[in-house]
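Replying to the earlier thread about multi-chain prediction with a worked example.

Input:
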Amino acid sequence: MSRVPRLRPRTVMPRSAVAVAACACCLLATGRPASGQVANPNQVLSASQSATATALRDAALKGSGAYNLGKSLATEVGPRLAGSPGDPLAVAWGVRTLKALGFANVHTEKVMVPHWERGAESAEVTAPYPQRLAVAALGGSVGTPEGGVEAPVVGVASLAALDKLDPAKVKGKIVFVDVQMRRTRGIEGYATAVPVRGEAAAHAGRLGAAAVVIRSIGTDDNRLPHTGGMRYGDGPRIPAAALSAPDADLLAAELGSAKPVTLRLKLGARQLPEAESANVIGEITGSEKPGEIVLLGCHLDSWDLGQGALDDGAGCAIVIEAARRLGELKPHPRRTVRVVLFANEEFGLSGARAYAEAHRQELDRHVVAAESDLGTGRPWRLATRIDLASYGWVREISRLIFPLGVATGDNLAEGGADLSVLAPARVPFLELDQDATVYFDYHHTANDTMDKLVPRDLDYNVADWVVLAYVAADIPGDFGRAPAPAQEPPKK
Amino acid sequence: MSRVPRLRPRTVMPRSAVAVAACACCLLATGRPASGQVANPNQVLSASQSATATALRDAALKGSGAYNLGKSLATEVGPRLAGSPGDPLAVAWGVRTLKALGFANVHTEKVMVPHWERGAESAEVTAPYPQRLAVAALGGSVGTPEGGVEAPVVGVASLAALDKLDPAKVKGKIVFVDVQMRRTRGIEGYATAVPVRGEAAAHAGRLGAAAVVIRSIGTDDNRLPHTGGMRYGDGPRIPAAALSAPDADLLAAELGSAKPVTLRLKLGARQLPEAESANVIGEITGSEKPGEIVLLGCHLDSWDLGQGALDDGAGCAIVIEAARRLGELKPHPRRTVRVVLFANEEFGLSGARAYAEAHRQELDRHVVAAESDLGTGRPWRLATRIDLASYGWVREISRLIFPLGVATGDNLAEGGADLSVLAPARVPFLELDQDATVYFDYHHTANDTMDKLVPRDLDYNVADWVVLAYVAADIPGDFGRAPAPAQEPPKK
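Result:
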């Protein structure tokens, strides 16, 4: 995942099964005024549906096989940044995997993607105490001149502090933005810190800086910097890179010596011509309403540094495996379950935009969409963005996955970066929020490798997803249409 | 630390203060038959000595300052492999630090050291699924030809399995030795696994292999390979390198595909002419017997990949800080406490050998020697190598540090890699065994950085060491002479 999530207040349900049923209305108060909201007695699963969902859930918990899918993608493809040699390999992997697993209508849909290439890169403190630093260009950064940029370093503790600096003190310098991301169970820590990654270059560039380096947006203490997307805006385009946490510590310690500190930064990054990629799609055809779609999404691309095992191999493994299990039901669920492996989430949501455009005529038949894009952490909350008149169906899902540790959330779900593009069409979202406690130790680093996939946690994910997808695909009602978005979907 | 420790049975005392006094004899049974061994009633501290030792211990626990020493070395010097540009910087740091802290007789003693240089290095699987691997040459490895070595991979699960292979199946291949080190509190896990690092090249070379790669000897799951020393013996000298654990997983997964796997390995490693380095020495002069020496050692060199904050910046910080505190006593302890920052432990014990040679006339006046070289983990056991007739003094030390969680060990202490060179002179050793549970996550990697220093654990170390050094330096008796070594000190 690469989105810049909005922070929003959340009300979390107490962990009691009774409370799940009793308090749905007030829990939803953050999404919409709850006055008069009552459970619709018609929005309950049949006994047979309940039994099927329970059996699907419990079978997944016994061992889902999702780990093997993630391992396969990490091994046979590995890094697959948009436009890179790994990109078409990933598309081929997606097609052969969905076909091998018995999906119907397996096909690709062309997507043009940007092609940014990292090249060789290095950083070193040249004074007062020369030492090499582990560094990674931020995605989209321009490169430095061939000999690099060498300049005095100005350290700041926030973007706000940077903005207050006298431009005369920044001009020609390398700005170091040293913000430590907090470790949180949800994405609050990331959401708070990630604007540094996205915007530091724009802020520093406006003040005339020669380049900018940031402390990695991550929670680990490894010598492995975190890359990720950034935006220049309309200002000067200056080189931008992340230092690993220990290297940020070192630079801070050198600055703490009260001697002038100079840094040399070399980035070989460059933008190449657009390349062709593809969304990969496969379906479990609905037995009664095949034209109505339950979309399960993930993104097939990854950053270049790691294997993309967590981001987003895990998500693809989860949604593919959950859908595959629905394909074993006879008959299939009533609606079509469509798995979409989106191209290029990380570098501008190209796949999601292409999907929204190619399928614009049928978006009103997208009954619900959900995306998995936060590694293998177990889901702990089910948020929604639906018509609350249909909330009874969500309560049915909640009842089934509450025993797996999933509380109910609010009705302000964003759904996932790719799904944000579907918000204007008011496609309803279901959002299984995962435990992100350790996710940002690995996210966007070389350390995003298959050993970080936790098989047991993947089983929990598949169990939650198979229930969600089955209920959404088989219920006689639907989730209505989602509230109209209050703003445009976030630009990448 | 780089030594290859011997595995030996250990008897650990139950954690009860009563047991410390009551069971010393039977605890020592692994070192020497205990029959007839009784406590010598004369080997007890005076009330004044006891009070001083306790005060030293408790003051260190309140905050030792050792962290700042480790941070200073990591920041101002960082990597300092023997012969590298960091080596003389480290010597200069040692001299200025000991002088600034008030040590007497601060001086260097010349040591000639080997000079091995890593150069650029890379590894990539070229078939069946091309991917780049994080790799580090083992210390002392020859380089590859400039274009690298590309060859099919033969995987083995142990050196013994390698030895059983038909040479025809190994000739010209790259051997992959895939042994997972266990995580243990002591050094058992390391001692069991490290022969793979030391000997894989010799074993594979004998069978005609083109090169050898091993799974890193370490316990982490980071994309940061562990380097360390190795030996060729008399056979062919083939390139040898370590893959990080995730990269070893990937190579194993590719081998698991049952398709032929080929690897390309490029190592720019080379041996340069010997260089000059130095042991750095400083003393707290004894107030009554200045010619009798209590040696506190650490090693000043480090591997090239990290800052050497743990290995062995921590050990130097601990022994310097402990000795410095003794220098504040008026009068000083009776004997001289000599801090020795040994040159080049990692690459052949050059500093220790030079010390033993330069000081051979006074080794019989080395009352005891101890070395700190296992990071910042808290000591949990005090082992010895002394004349057991003097064990009453060890019991006094034990009594004082037992409340810090230190049990008594056996009388088979090796003392530390550098001290092994002093064993033939029967210099007595005291050995504070540290908790190594996480140490081998970082050891010999780029991740050995200052943030891995745990200030509170350093305080515990200093508290243990200051007691040990004070008692050794101030008691009227001594530790006799150590048992003669059963074998030559380990060759590096």
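The radius of gyration of chain B is 23 Å.

Feel free to reuse this layout for your own posts.
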